[in-house]
Amino acid sequence: MKFLKSLNSKFFHEAIPAKPMGKYAHFITIRVTESYPLFQTDGELNKARVRAGIENKEPISRLAMFKRKQSTPERLTGRELLRNYKIGDWEKCDYNVDFSKTTPDCILYGFAIGDSGSEKSKVVVDTAYSITPFDDSHLNFTLNAPFENGTMSRQGEVTSRINSQDHILPQVFFPSIVTLKDPTEAGFLYVFNNILRTRHYGAQTTRTGRVRNELVGVIFADGEIVSNLLWTQKIYDLMQEKKQVNFPDPLNEDDVLEAATQAITNLMSQECISHTDFIGTSFTPLLSEIKSITSDETRLQEMLNQANVESSTYAQTWVLKSGKKELKKDTKNNKKAATVTE
Prior knowledge:
Helices cover 36% and strands 24% of the residues. It is built from seven helices and 16 strands. It has helices at residues 67-84, 104-109, 185-197, 228-241, 253-268, 284-294, 297-341; strands spanning 24-33, 40-41, 44-45, 47-51, 59-65, 111-112, 118-119, 123-125, 128-133, 138-144, 153-154, 157-158, 162-168, 173-181, 211-221, 275-279. Helix 1 packs across helix 3 (185-197) and helix 4 (228-241) crosses helix 5. The longest helix has 45 residues, at 297-341. It is globular, with a radius of gyration of 23 Å. It starts with 23 loop residues before the first strand and ends with a helix.
């Protein structure tokens, strides 16, 4: 079933292949914080000491958004849709507890269940870094838990439920490239839709963590492209050159998107791989067509059903059967070992 008229079918496989076939779809994304999210490990915001830019060589500390902080909320968005429309083995699938091994989520994003089998993720996400330095991208807040009357004291007793926590500021930008290996058309739309729909990232996602994903393009290639860090450093250079970085003022979003588009275009011109870029004006009709599919309930369900058929077929052919073969092989080897021991 074909969904997209604005893309050549050569970019996609008819079915999910069992081995890497050298087709890559790269989603060029700017993640924009819209509240006070927390990307932290062991109680502290994640950060890294890196060079400011490619040309600007001074070291700075940047906020870091680890890969799991990005991929987990997006795959949970997709799983929620599958449950909503009762597509595939949605009842059995329980994230990080019991994977069905057959849904688009399991096959595209991967799973690992100890001795029960595993599937390597076809969605590749790397750590993203803030364009602005750590010191200008976060703020420490004092948190409290008041009594029922709204105060911190009751009957002469003052609560000690007071704490402080570093939060990332609104309008901090994290350039991030999400890669899908060997996509089918339905798989491409499934991952694209997850990126567009996901709105919360990081810890305490029920109360904060609002993040908006702005896609500036899609690149189809026969290999992996530039890293998030290199892209971020190039954006920083371009904005510094135009004097658009004025700490501690937040960056202007229009300036960031313009610099991000120019940076990825410049970096891709230096690549040694074959690639087709949909960036800027060439990306607009593709984005509009994809949004028309994902916002139409009927067409959305058709896409999800197609993605599920492809993943189920792949699972039955390469995941479940191979697992049974390995089990039989292990059982046979154990019997031989037992015979030798006896």
